[in-house]
């Protein structure tokens, strides 16, 4: 049973805060283990990678087989049924079209002092994408990570994907090819992150690492941050649906379940202006749970973390939504667009009942790597900008330096940084002679 | 004595790699202490803040005096000499003008399938800026952090600045006022970061924390990352100057010293096509070091981490510069603009001999919070974007869902995510009835 809350309950604020503060991730003590793995990979290189892969993936590798050969990729891709290939191609094309609009503009101008100012965006030289293995090995995530990198102009892209017992997902390899990734390592876990950050004889180091992963991968990304750039530390998936009574309860039920089925730690919340509708949705969820393949996972997520919140009006719904700052926000209301316009904190908004969140996971176009655990308050989904960086530009003329240099000198002296001031003064003196 | 390298040396590659790999920061074991401080602030709130401030800043506070009163700020600001006030106002105006051009554009379009797609940028609701105390208490840094936040539209801005022995820097308070920051806490160290991240009775929590700090502050920022957003972990300052022989050696010498004087761990590197010019610069540095106020700091930085690298040609200079990925790159060459155009990795470029780096620290306009320690390979200086986040938008019509939904369903099934597919299927079935 999910929680049922109502803003008219006397203890609503307490219960809502408890919902917000729910710790959904196991507090595993993995950091120490991860530190040791990273140190080992830095010290022993390829041999450490081979040892960890034997231990965790039950797979014997050599420096030569750390990476998939072109023939291996070809052979795997040939097994993909045409319908799945077409679907992946459609997804790739739509994701590419969306992300191509994100390429940022350079700027250059001359101000009234005669100073030329601006900035220029350039791509990261090399990026590494982590793709989880096992159940969470999603070809769609390959596209969502690799295509923005490719659109940004990253020259060298690689993937690390574990292949437990040597089993690879052909769709993952096809997605890599569609996104222009040539190098795919049979590597997972903290050891893969360490290899991409520091390099080994067989793994060229990269400048930026993105992609989801388990607690070991997340801890490793946090540790190598600084040595390389990382995207974000992704937590369990979440959906918030705001729905009025004028909806099919079953549609909303499957939308809620589409997040709940990801992970027992996922969270699905419905906010509605109509309590009876909320109850109807909960009943529809129970009905779907009777037959859903992943009913055990989805049922536990819904029971432990699910919630149905009844509000007095749409304004209350928006205010609660902004406090939740959901990863995915679906708005199934008559005035969905107006409501969307007033939302401040959300990773992605799906507007109107004809826009199920799952569309955004695959073929909508926007990225499905989105800020979780309320981090949409301060961060954004993955984009082309994550694979680029900005260099600021400044060019003074003698006149411009004469105009603004004395102020710089004054501030340098007041900050006790004499040489800063002298570097301006030496030039200004030339002008006066 | 700085190191002298030349690309014609047989052991150049080895020595250059050693230069790149130099560890300039003390590997202090502060992380454990910081974890304890954060836990203590979360547990004891204001009282922990008061206790740490008594211990580290020798200052007795109460919940009421944690924050500067308006009268205290007024009184301090009144002591600022007019010349310094004008210089700070000029700096604020120029920084604001530059950053106002960084406001990002929203986007919304309808694609050929009839899907409405786009994104919308919104500001972070609340941001906290850390301003170091003591020698490194720089009013210019207040402007560089607070103005982008203000331009982004952040509603609530606060500053934490330690005041050792109760001494505050009036220019810091003036800079805060110029940048629209109302709330300034007398707090420093890891406890200040913890308070801004988690909140106490007297400190309202924020969503994003930026600003430089010592090893404790850096470790605390790394630890609270996820609970709040952070800007970057700043390391010691660096400058790389590329200069041809047609320069005044003294100009280049003071430019190198303007970074060296920041910190004994700062690094100043000259790359030149003319070895004799490099030697003349080194001689000019020594001369300036005889009288420079901060000669002890600057001299140690220059001796320990300084380098003069002679290259065969400009192409070599550019290639080495991109490997260094300097925080600050100054190009004092006849064809400075052409060289700047080919640089790929640098935080900020100062083009031409009339653009000393120090201009960028104060009044140029671009931000002086820049990626250090080679992180310009994957990250950018502070900007308006650091205080904003992007929400992606998608709105399907029934026709659009009919066009692209089946591909989403196919991929959902292939990924084993049945409910994802059902959320599309339920809607498509309605269309078929």
UniProtKB/TrEMBL annotation, chains A, B:
Residues that coordinate or bind NAD(+): 130, 191, 214
Q: What keywords does the record list, in alphabetical order?
A: Amino-acid biosynthesis, Histidine biosynthesis, Metal-binding, NAD, Oxidoreductase, Zinc
State a GO cellular component annotated for this protein: cytosol
**The enzyme's E.C. designation:** 1.1.1.23
Which CDD domains does the entry link to?
A: Histidinol_dh
GO terms classed as biological process: L-histidine biosynthetic process
Q: Which GO terms describe its molecular function?
A: histidinol dehydrogenase activity; NAD binding; zinc ion binding
Residue numbers binding substrate? 237, 259, 262, 328, 361, 415, 420
Q: Which residues cross the membrane?
A: none
Reaction catalyzed: L-histidinol + 2 NAD(+) + H2O = L-histidine + 2 NADH + 3 H(+)
Q: Which cofactor does it need?
A: Zn(2+)
Q: Which residues form the active site?
A: 327 (proton acceptor), 328 (proton acceptor)
Indicate which residues the UniProt annotation says bind Zn(2+).
259, 262, 361, 420
UniProt-listed SUPFAM superfamilies: ALDH-like
- Primary role: Catalyzes the sequential NAD-dependent oxidations of L-histidinol to L-histidinaldehyde and then to L-histidine.
The protein depicted here goes by the name Histidinol dehydrogenase
Organism per entry:
Pontivivens nitratireducens
